[in-house]
Each structure stands twice: as C-alpha cells, then as structure tokens.
Amino acid sequence: MNIFLTGATGYIGSAVRSALLDAGHAVTALVRTPAAADRIAGAGLEAVVGDMRDAGLVRRLAEKSDAVLHAASPGDETSAAAEDAFADAVLSGLSGTFIRTGGVWVHGSGAAITEQTPLDPPPLVAWRAAVDQRVLTAPGIRAVLIEPGVVYGHGGGIPRLVTGAERRPDGLTLIGDGTQHWATVHVDDLARLYLAALDRAGHGETFLGVSGDNPTTRRLGEAASRRLGLGGRVVPEEPAATVQRLGEFGRALLLDQQAAGEKARRVLGWQPARPSLADEIAAGGYDPA
C-alpha cells in the first residue's frame, strides 16, 4: 500500500515507520524540516517537508494514498485546532483508510477499561472525543481509532519521568502517591498493532493499544529506585503537588487505569511480546543520561 504517515520522526511514528517499511509498504512521511527529511530518507520512503496544518498539502497527500496513519500532534494548546483541521483535510481527499491515534486517557480512571468504557477525560485531552467521533463516522472511508496507553521502550516516552524523578535521602520521589495504575504498551508492540489494524480492522472500530500489564507507579518507582542504588525506597508525592508541579499533564498521570486490550487480540490477532515496563526499568533501559 501507499501510506501517508505523520509523526514519522516522533516516538510512536518512528516505530510505525519502521514497521511499515519492513512490511513492504511505500511510505510518504510528512516532516517539518529538511533536516528531518534527510534523517529518515531511504528505500521505500518519500519525505515531504510541510506542516499538518497546511490543508492543501494534506489533502493532496491523502488523495494519492491508500491509507493515512496519523501519529502526530503539536502536543500543546494548539493541538485541538490542529488535529481538527488535519482531520478535515484528510477527509476531503481520502478514499481509503484513516487510522487515527487517540489515547486511553479519554476514558478516565477505571479498573477494567475497554473500548466501550464511557468517556471521562481529564482537561488535557477533553478535546479529543469530538475529533475521534467525527473521523470514526465519516462516510466513504475506512476509519479506525487506536488508543494507546502509556507508551514505553528504548528509553523513551513518559516513563523517563519515573527514573528522572527527584532523588532524596529517603528514596526516589513518585508521581503521585503511588497507588494509581498505568495501562502500558511497548512502542514496538504498538507499531505492530497499527499494521494489524491496517490489514484487518473494520470501519468505525476503536482498539485500545495496551499490553494488559498495568503496574502501579509505586511498583515502577521501586524498580527505578533499586536500579539507581536507592534500595527500592520511594517517597510518595501528594497528588495536589503533582498537579502543581506538572500542571494538567500531571493530572492525567494521576489517572488510575487498568485495561487488558482483549479486543485487539480477539479481532486483529495482535499479541504483545515485549518485556514489561518494570522489567525495562530494572534492566537499565531507562537509566538517566
């Protein structure tokens, strides 16, 4: 297939890019700078320099593609408007498949989250629902939504906050009080989920991108503490202090989420195979630089 990919130099998008190329797809990657284009240039990949807010460019790239895999977002206060405009441009040009990246945070806290769990998003991602729904119900295309959990692997992503936390004489500072669970997924397993969705997902389907491993932040902090020579000692942080320190991002990190991701296994045949986040931390994959 001819695939139009966004986020090709980002954390998730880089893994998706490699998986697509390994599977023999032709990839057109939208990147922001010539330097980024030079970094990823290679067989099977065309890098186009531009911006996801450029509606004309996005529409033209979508028109030429069998599928659009969207793994980019500004990640700031412009995200809602940028994502909305990007969706408009893709839907005006695409006649194939649109796989959009959402996130499990939109479901709020829950001990057994599934794709059917009612939405209860923290303010940071409250804007997502309207865009997600508009894409999933768009006529004339095959639309799929993937909602990753906390993504980890290769020393990247949110877990760097765990091992990079403040070290005190009495232990490593936790994110929150340590009782909240994180629904997690390795970035390489997640990339394979995008390929499985590209091959087998039906229109309007949503899939949680989670491995089924849901560690508490205390468990992760203790693994990091042992790795850093602090003997597994950790220091809980008052949730209000976490929000004060990290803002709305901190509020999202305090969500208590557990999810099995059974639907992706049953419908798509996806099987996560990478080590758990706690194991990656224990093995040194998140040692501070």
TrEMBL record:
GO cellular component, one term: cytoplasm
Classification via SUPFAM superfamilies: NAD(P)-binding Rossmann-fold domains
GO molecular function: aldehyde dehydrogenase (NAD+) activity
NAD(P)-binding domain ranges (all copies): 7-87
Name of the molecule in the record: NAD-dependent epimerase/dehydratase family protein
PANTHER family linked: NAD(P)-BINDING DOMAIN-CONTAINING PROTEIN-RELATED, PROTEIN YEEZ
Organism this protein belongs to: Actinoplanes aureus
Pfam families hit by this protein: Epimerase (PF01370), NAD_binding_10 (PF13460)
Signal peptide from the UniProt entry: none
Domain NAD-dependent epimerase/dehydratase: start-end pairs: 138-207
